[in-house]
UniProtKB/TrEMBL annotation:
Subcellular location: Cell outer membrane
Family: Belongs to the OmpP1/FadL family.
UniProt membrane topology term: Multi-pass membrane protein
Protein name (database record): Porin
Keyword presence, 4Fe-4S: no
Keywords: Cell outer membrane, Membrane, Signal, Transmembrane, Transmembrane beta strand
Gene3D superfamilies for this protein: Outer membrane protein transport protein (OMPP1/FadL/TodX) (2.40.160.60)
Family annotation (InterPro entries): OMPP1/FadL/TodX
UniProt-listed Pfam families: Toluene_X
Transmembrane in keyword set: yes
Length: 401
C-alpha cells in the first residue's frame, strides 16, 4: 500500500487515472483508458485490450488555528510533518467478445493524513505529535455487457483494504467508552466489500451518457480504535452515485461533465456531530461522536483535444461542496478535507501504436473553514479554524495489446 491515500472530494479521489485527472476527473461518460472502470464499470465495453500503470506525487498543505480557548490551546499549527506521498495505481481491461469485457482496477480510493509535530492538544495533556493516517485501497474486478448496440451495463464487486492510525489525542479518551483503544495504538487494518454498477450509452455518433451507483462498503472494525470510532471502531465507506455526459464537439475536441453525490452522513463515525458528547454519548458508542461531515455534491467539467496524431491535450475543473460544517472543526483539525476547487491540465504522447505516456498536474487552492461554536465549553470554548490546499502531479504508461 502507498504511504497514504489522500483525496480531494472530501476524502475521496477527484478522479482515477492520469487521463481522467488531467480532464478535471471527468470519467463517468468519457472513458479514456482502463482506469475508467473505477468510475463506471460499464466503460469496459468501450475500452480496447490494454493495461495502464501510473502513480501520483501528492503534496497536501494542511493546518489549523485555535483562538479564544480558555484551556490554553490557542496557536497556529502546521499538519505538514509528513510530505509528499506517492500513490500507485493500475488497471487492466480485456474484451472477451464483441459484447462482453472484463477488467480489474486497483487504486487508492480515499484517505486523509495529518501530522502535527507541535501538538494542538498539548495543553490538554496530549504528548508527542498528533495526527491521523487513513488509507483506503480499492480492488474492483469488473464485467460489462453491451446488451444492445451502444448500450452497456457493468458490475464491479468492490473490495476495500483500509488502515488507520491516530496519535497524540490521548486527552479525549476520557470521553470514550473504551479509553484503552483510542489513541497511539499503532496501525490497524480493516477489510470490506460492496458493489458498483454502471451504465454507458451512446446516442448518435458523438454523444455518450453514463451513470453509476456505489453501495456503502461494509467493513470490519478497527479494533485498536474501538474507543474512538462509533460502533466500536466501525468505519464503513459511504455510498455514492452520479451521472455524466460527453460530447464530441468536433472531430478533435471532446467535452465532458460529471455530477457525483457522496453520502458521508450515512456513516456514523464520519457523519455524527461532536455535540453527541454533550448529550452523554461517548466516543466508540453505537451512535457516538464522529467528524460531523455532511453529504456533498461534486461537479466536474473537462476537455480533451487531439492536437495531432501523437499528442492529446486535456484541461478540467472540479467543484465540490465542503463536508465540514463550521460547528465541527475541532475534531477536523485531524481531517481537514475542505478544499473545493480543483484545476487540472494534462497531456498524452503516443510513443508507438501500442505504447503511450500520460502526465497531469492538479492544484486545489487553499480553502479555510472558520469555526463557529466549534469548541464545546467543557474543552475551553473558542474556535478552531482549519485549512487545506493540495498540489499533485502524476504519470501513467498505457500498453495496448
Amino acid at each position: 500500500m502507498p504511504g497514504t491515500a489522500q483525496a480531494t472530494d472530501g476524502y475521496f479521489l477527484n478522479g482515477v487515472g492520469a487521463k481522467a485527472k488531467g480532464a478535471g476527473g471527468v470519467a463517468i461518460a468519457m472513458p479514456q483508458d482502463a482506469f475508467s472502470i473505477a468510475s463506471n464499470p460499464a466503460s469496459a465495453t468501450a475500452i480496447e485490450h490494454r493495461l495502464d500503470v501510473g502513480f501520483e506525487v501528492f503534496i497536501p498543505d494542511r493546518g489549523s488555528e485555535i483562538i479564544g480557548n480558555q484551556a490554553g490551546l490557542d496557536g497556529v499549527y502546521s499538519g505538514n510533518d509528513a510530505n509528499p506521498f506517492i500513490l500507485p495505481e493500475f488497471a487492466y481491461v480485456r474484451p472477451l467478445s464483441d459484447t462482453v469485457s472484463v477488467g480489474l482496477a486497483v487504486n487508492g480510493n480515499g484517505g486523509m493524513n495529518t501530522a502535527y509535530k507541535t501538538n494542538p492538544f498539548a495543553s490538554f495533556g496530549a504528548t508527542g505529535p498528533a495526527g491521523v493516517n487513513l488509507r483506503q485501497i480499492s480492488i474492483a474486478p469488473t464485467i460489462a455487457v453491451e446488451f444492445a448496440e451502444g448500450q452497456s451495463l457493468g458490475l464491479s464487486p468492490h473490495f476495500v483494504v483500509q488502515s488507520f492510525e491516530a496519535t497524540g489525542i490521548q486527552p479525549f479518551a476520557a470521553n470514550s467508552q473504551d479509553p484503552a483503544n483510542f489513541s497511539n495504538r499503532g496501525e490497524d487494518w480493516a477489510f470490506g466489500a460492496g458493489f458498483r454498477v454502471g451504465y454507458l450509452g451512446s446516442f448518435g455518433d458523438n454523444v455518450r451518457v453514463g451513470a453509476f451507483y456505489q453501495s456503502e462498503v461494509w467493513t470490519t472494525e478497527f479494533d485498536r480504535y474501538a474507543g474512538l470510532f462509533a460502533e466500536q471502531g466501525g468505519f464503513n465507506m459511504p455510498a455514492s452515485w452520479g451521472a455524466g455526459v460527453s460530447v464530441d464537439a468536433t472531430p478533435r475536441l471532446t467535452l465532458g461533465a460529471d455530477f457525483k453525490h457522496i453520502e458521508y452522513s450515512g456513516v456514523n463515525s464520519v457523519g455524527n456531530p461532536i455535540s453527541s458528547l454533550l448529550q452523554g454519548v461517548p466516543f466508540g458508542a453505537d451512535n457516538g461522536p464522529g467528524f460531523g461531515w455532511d453529504d456533498i455534491d461534486v461537479w466536474k467539467v473537462g476537455a480533451v483535444y487531439q492536437a495531432s496524431d501523437k499528442l492529446t491535450l486535456r484541461a478540467g475543473y472540479g467543484r465540490s461542496d465542503n463536508p465540514v460544517p463550521q460547528s465541527e472543526t475541532l475534531l477536523n483539525i485531524l481531517a481537514p478535507g475542505v478544499v473545493r476547487d480543483h484545476y487540472t491540465v494534462g497531456a498524452t504522447h503516443k510513443l508507438s501504436e501500442k505504447f503511450e505516456i500520460t502526465g497531469y498536474a492538479m492544484r486545489a487552492p487553499r480553502q479555510t473553514v472558520n469555526g463557529s461554536g466549534s469548541i464545546p465549553a467543557p474543552f475551553g470554548g473558542g474556535e478552531a479554524n482549519i485549512r487545506l490546499a493540495e498540489t499533485a502531479i502524476g504519470f501513467s504508461l498505457g500498453f495496448g495489446f
